[in-house]
Inverse folding.
DNA sequence: GGAATGACGCCAT
DNA sequence: AATGGCGCCATTC
């Protein structure tokens, strides 16, 4: 299917792809950056289609730095493994030093 | 066509 | 301050 919303999704992919190595961002941050503000869910939904993209969805977490979508990756701790592999300390789906690794598109992009 | 769901987040109580 | 409920927009049953 080719919904007209590809524009919105595409934006999400563009931003997600620009996430620096060893950094993470939140759905809300991206949503706000795109102007969706309270539509953080859309960002997460967009990630569903990011599977075939070059989008590092594992670098996108919720506002708390919690790897809520790790279930959608492989069903295991793959997401956490990837983050830790990039230097991001993760403790049971919870990103450590979040404010340090956090990457805000509205500020840094 | 209508209702329910979903990788979240903010507002209200 | 903490917990609960509602909203956002698109997709799917």
């Amino acid at each position: 299917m080719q919904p007209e919303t590809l524009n919105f999704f595409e934006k999400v992919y563009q931003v997600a792809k620009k996430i620096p190595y060893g950094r993470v961002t939140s759905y809300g941050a991206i949503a706000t950056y795109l102007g969706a503000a309270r539509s953080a869910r859309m960002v997460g939904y967009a990630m569903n289609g990011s599977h075939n993209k070059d989008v590092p969805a594992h670098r996108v977490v919720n506002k708390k730095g919690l790897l809520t979508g790790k279930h959608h990756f492989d069903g295991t701790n793959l997401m956490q493994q990837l983050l830790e592999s990039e230097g991001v300390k993760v403790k049971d789906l919870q990103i450590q030093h979040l404010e340090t690794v956090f990457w805000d598109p509205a500020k840094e992009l």
